[in-house]
């Protein structure tokens, strides 16, 4: 309904988390999406419970178990902390009075406080599950805050603003041993592979780790290359690198490589912007 695609659902022993490509920043839309999961679990729990009352034997037992676990899942998902739906519900309510970024920081802070409290209780009552849930919540809240903060900071720039324009590339005929020499010389762990001015692949440390030093790059390189355009938002690079666990993305324009953006480029920009924000806050 809101055009939000779900990449998948990560299942844990105590629940599941939907991995969405992009969370809508409209509070009403996020609230509706966040409540969909818990309400579905609650509906299943209620239907299972009332259905169990009309049956007997093994079927009734199965339905009661289904009602119990879906009820527990509903409660768990409504905990007001990321990455559960309850955290998104909390953020959507806070975002009605403040910015999305500030709402995320506030909701993440509340989630971390809940996690710490659960961790303390779990420690004193020697409950391993409570400790694991506390860790899960704390890490989820931290990750959500990190992503939204990065998006807020990087939204001011395009890929063209932050990319490295001097690109060190290799040809398909380059030997693996030569690539290793480049890695030691320039301290970069990946290089675009260019033929006749066009990007045809990328070779990284992972690609050459077990390769013969005399092998050619075209025999070991990755041919499925993710690229960006100079006009793409800078946060897109952060999102792709986080999701795909890659360290660099070539920037292509009109079929030609015009730059490269690395994880270190993003981190430097982010650190600089955070420093400037702190400096501005101290002056105010």
Secondary structure: helix percent = 55-70%
Note the run of SSEs as H and E: EEHHHHHHHEEHHHEEH
Cα-atom Rg, whole angstroms? 24 Å
Q: Quote the distance from N terminus to C terminus.
A: 43 Å
Put simply, the count of helices is: 11
Number of strands: 6
User: In order across it, which strands form the biggest sheet?
Assistant: 1-2
Oligomerization: single chain
The count of domains is 2
Largest sheet: 2 strands, antiparallel
Indicate the low-confidence ranges by residue numbers. none
What class would the helix/strand composition place it in?
Answer: alpha+beta
* Overall geometry: elongated
Beta-strand fraction estimate: 5-15%
Mean pLDDT value: 88
Outline the structure in words.
- By secondary structure, this protein is an alpha+beta fold.
- It has two domains: 6-155, no CATH class; 160-272, CBS-domain.
- Helices cover 58% and strands 14% of the residues.
- The protein has eleven helices and six strands.
- The strands form three sheets. It has a two-stranded antiparallel sheet. It has a two-stranded antiparallel ribbon with strand order 3-4.
- A hairpin with a 2-residue loop joins β5 (248-253) and β6.
Quick description:
The chain has 284 residues and is an alpha+beta fold. It contains eleven helices and six strands. It folds into two domains: 150 residues, no CATH class; 113 residues, CBS-domain, CATH 3.10.580.10.
């Amino acid at each position: 309904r809101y055009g939000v695609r779900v990449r998948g659902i990560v299942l844990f022993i105590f629940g599941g988390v939907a991995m969405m490509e992009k969370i809508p920043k409209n509070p009403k839309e996020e609230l509706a999406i966040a409540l969909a999961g818990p309400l579905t679990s609650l509906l299943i729990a209620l239907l299972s419970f009332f259905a169990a009352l009309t049956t007997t034997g093994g079927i009734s037992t199965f339905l009661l178990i289904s009602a119990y676990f879906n009820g527990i899942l509903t409660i768990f998902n409504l905990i007001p902390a990321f990455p559960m739906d309850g955290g998104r519900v909390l953020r959507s309510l806070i975002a009605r009075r403040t910015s999305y970024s500030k709402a995320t920081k506030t909701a993440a802070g509340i989630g971390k406080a809940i996690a710490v409290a659960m961790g303390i209780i779990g420690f004193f009552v020697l409950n391993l599950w409570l400790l694991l849930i506390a860790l899960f919540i704390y890490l989820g809240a931290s990750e959500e805050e990190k992503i939204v903060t990065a998006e807020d900071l990087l939204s001011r720039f395009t890929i063209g603003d932050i990319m490295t324009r001097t690109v060190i590339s290799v040809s398909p005929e380059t030997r693996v041993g030569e690539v290793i020499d480049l890695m030691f010389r320039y301290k970069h762990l990946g290089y675009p592979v260019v033929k006749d001015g066009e990007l045809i692949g990328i070779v990284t440390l992972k690609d050459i780790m077990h390769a013969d030093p005399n092998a050619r790059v075209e025999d070991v390189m990755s041919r499925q290359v993710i690229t960006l355009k100079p006009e793409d938002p800078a946060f897109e690079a952060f999102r792709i690198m986080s999701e795909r666990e890659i360290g660099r993305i070539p920037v292509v324009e009109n079929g030609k490589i015009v730059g490269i953006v690395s994880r270190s480029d993003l981190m430097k920009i982010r650190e600089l912007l955070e420093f400037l924000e702190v400096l501005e806050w101290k002056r105010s």
